[in-house]
Amino acid sequence: MNTRTTEERRHEIVRVARATGSVDVTALAAELGVAKETVRRDLRALEDHGLVRRTHGGAYPVESAGFETTLAFRATSHVPEKRRIASAAAELLGDAETVFIDEGFTPQLIAEALPRDRPLTVVTASLPVAGALAEAGDTSVLLLGGRVRSGTLATVDHWTTKMLAGFVVDLAYIGANGISREHGLTTPDPAVSEVKAQAVRAARRTVFAGAHTKFGAVSFCRFAEVGTLEAIVTSTLLPTAEAHRYSLLGPQVIRV
């Protein structure tokens, strides 16, 4: 007999979603000993509270002030989609000579996809990005100093933003934990938000690159509006109609 309260059951659903990256209605119903419709009702309530996003047959956790996935976790989810997105984003380089590359797995893939046969100066707060480009012949890497966050291996705080404030870059490749038409680009940590906001201010052009799961998700700290972006690069898993709604705010939306 199921003796859990509704609150306990929903807490458990969030815990499982955060631990595994997603939940399935059928599996949850069996595990919790309740009807599928009960689980669907729970997921609707959790979505209303901004804790999960529902998908066909399940849900995945939304990153928030209290929960953020690690770089290691991101490197295992939606990888083929992120590689396609990174490749398309790298093609937007144009004649840029100075580039900011954000922290995160998709920006790391963008760094690896950039051309190696021309001079390029890359500014980044990400240790993995700096490492990926350090031995690229014509690429000069400027790593922003500061406190290193363990989950993402990127620098933050006033040292980072002060150094970044001294630059004007041709193009910034930005990631986010969520992007929505109403709330713009968001991330859970205020220190990370400061770095991202400064990067957007420092750039002549800004490109957001992210998987379809980022869209409609809202996190704690807003750092940019959708209208400040030149382009959004995502996959065809973002519906055409939704992509069109984002394009009406200003950016070109590229789906690959």
Q: What share of residues are in beta strands?
A: 15-25%
Number of domains: 2
> If strands are numbered along the chain, what order do they take across the biggest sheet?
6-5-4-9-12-14-15
Principal-axes geometry comes out as elongated
Average pLDDT level: 91
Low-confidence stretches: none
Backbone CA Rg = 19 Å
Q: State the CATH class of the largest domain.
A: Alpha Beta
User: At CATH's second level, what is the architecture of the largest domain?
Assistant: 3-Layer(aba) Sandwich
The portion of residues assigned to helices is 25-40%
Quick description:
Repressor of the lactose catabolism operon. Galactose-6-phosphate is the inducer. It contains ten helices and 15 strands.
Q: Could you walk me through the main structural features you see in this protein, from its secondary elements to its overall organization?
A:
With 256 residues, the chain is an alpha/beta fold. The protein folds into 2 domains: 4-59, Winged helix-like DNA-binding domain superfamily/Winged helix DNA-binding domain (Arc Repressor Mutant, subunit A), CATH 1.10.10; 69-253, Rossmann fold. Helices cover 38% and strands 24% of the residues. It is built from 10 helices and 15 strands. The strands form 4 sheets. The protein has a 7-stranded parallel β-sheet with strand order 6-5-4-9-12-14-15, with helices on both faces. A hairpin with a 4-residue loop joins strand 7 and strand 8 (154-156). Helix 5 (79-90) packs across helix 6 (105-113) and helix 6 (105-113) runs parallel beside helix 7 (127-133). The mean pLDDT is 91.
